[in-house]
Design brief:
The protein has about 750 residues and is of the alpha+beta class. It contains 14 helices and 38 strands.
Amino acid sequence: MAEGEDMQTFTSIMDALVRISTSMKNMEKELLCPVCQEMYKQPLVLPCTHNVCQACAREVLGQQGYIGHGGDPSSEPTSPASTPSTRSPRLSRRTLPKPDRLDRLLKSGFGTYPGRKRGALHPQTIIFPCPACQGDVELGERGLSGLFRNLTLERVVERYRQSVSVGGAILCQLCKPPPLEATKGCTECRATFCNECFKLFHPWGTQKAQHEPTLPTLSFRPKGLMCPDHKEEVTHYCKTCQRLVCQLCRVRRTHSGHKITPVLSAYQALKDKLTKSLTYILGNQDTVQTQICELEETIRHTEVSGQQAKEEVSQLVRGLGAVLEEKRASLLQAIEECQQERLARLSAQIQEHRSLLDGSGLVGYAQEVLKETDQPCFVQAAKQLHNRIARATEALQTFGPAASSSFRHCQLDVGREMKLLTELNFLRVPEAPVIDTQRTFAYDQIFLCWRLPPHSPPAWHYTVEFRRTDVPAQPGPTRWQRREEVRGTSALLENPDTGSVYVLRVRGCNKAGYGEYSEDVHLHTPPAPVLHFFLDGRWGASRERLAISKDQRAVRSIPGLPLLLAAERLLTGCHLSVDVVLGDVAVTQGRSYWACAVDPASYLVKVGVGLESKLQESFQGAPDVISPRYDPDSGHDSGAEDATVEALPPFAFLTIGMGKILLGSGASSNAGLTGRDGPAASCTVPLPPRLGICLDYERGRVSFLDAVSFRGLLECPLDCSGPVCPAFCFIGGGAVQLQEPVGTKPERKVTIGGFAKLD
């Protein structure tokens, strides 16, 4: 029973030792210098926060051509760690420059040396190539002398050496051979001693007797970090420079205005952060192990996928080879058939010419026929023979080969194919699409348009994602609504919420996968449902002065002769013609919104709404008005009516002229045009590309907006005791274009003033 317990105890101890050994071996990677791949010896902290041995750093600077920037050689500790027996073998083979050459270099002004004028016009900046991050690090003028030693890393390396017994026991440096094992170390003497040698070199009653013994070590460190510039102990930490500083560094101009804290505060803050991060990592070991398993599974999938990709490429290339081989065989067969045909024709021509030789073939037969004396028989035989002889004579006179020996018509032009094969490469995912902001807008529906960059691989289809930004954020990742497999370069998002802000993005997809997302585009939807209507010029419209488009969504006012005659009578009496165009839909409830674009070159245009009955009554009878100050908005802009009238006006118009909008003093504005004491005075603002009109029938209010940014321009009261119609007034030349609806509108039947119309 006791033997079983002892065996379990021994097994548990061995398992613990194995775990400790494994963890120490894994930690050894953090303790290797990136230059010599050995344990750090007097590591220096580079500005990029990486570490490197001091001796290795000097060697790297020497290879870069910097001499005299490795710090003060006398400051190198004379400890066993710096002796040739324990230094890296590479460093023992390094040849140092001769003293006379160093003197010549120093006198010529190369490097930093005692006596050099520090206020030189062109101080040399030392560039150190960091072997860890492969970046160039600036060390300043002082080179390695301006860097701190990483004493914490030295202590970790020493503890690691003691735990794994790297290098065996530390021997006394002052014993006669064979040396004994060291039992003490002295920081002041920078050496290790056995008991007898320590007593011998630290005699009682001398200054050395006050040296405090330490544990034997291969690397002697100072008691604390010293400032490289002033050789004083560092007491503060500069957050701006992220560097430890001493008391003298604090008062220097270099750190003027920087955030400097005591080193104790920086120590506590960094220790708390490191402890918190380490606690989180140690508390999520299961997550780390799960991610390791996931990465290992990813590695296996990568190996399998890579092999499949190789096989697919090989199969495709073999397919190309098979197609080429098949094409080669067919082309060679065509050449072979052409060659055989030509050879047959040339052989027949040779046979014909051989028959023309004396005594053979056709000539011999003709000679024999000429010997015939019977005239009828001769005529019978010679008739056919004469035709053959005539053809042979003609062939002789116009000799030429029956077929050409050249095969130039069988040449192949493979330039395009060779270029395609040369450019044959793996298919790349599409690049991020570019949103066409000129064609993308939100009205009754949202229309999104995009295009691919010029040199982007093609996309088979697109994915459009959108979401509202004015809703409360839900916990967790942001949720997007998607429209998958969109063909073409535009998409229509139906039934968006009114008065909302949507953010949209799109990305392409092909056989290689999904590409990057486009930049987000934000679109404001109208504040109310969109009202669809057409222009009706029957009320107050003159066909001579108004031209309505065939689709009844645009109108243009042509001044013509009446305006010229009015200008002629300007000094005696001016009769200006006012032309009005109404919408064919009347609003009787709810909120409605529509938008239009006014030509900036228009002389005077009024856009707004009014009671249907009042509009018909005002403009059906007398279109010409005897007053240059006539205004159909009943006082919003004209100031002609009595201000004491409390009744709501039947009209509400926004006055536009010569690319400007007149904001009258009698209406309130949402654009910051009102002061604390009351409405602001009349002023003008630039005409936006599109104007929006929002009618709230229940509240009796009309708002005029910038239809692009939905910034409020003007808000007016309105008498909504009856049906209200959109209206447009023209004085002089002008043009108005209603904004086209995005979606296809259904057929609807409307009734205005007893007339029925079917769209």
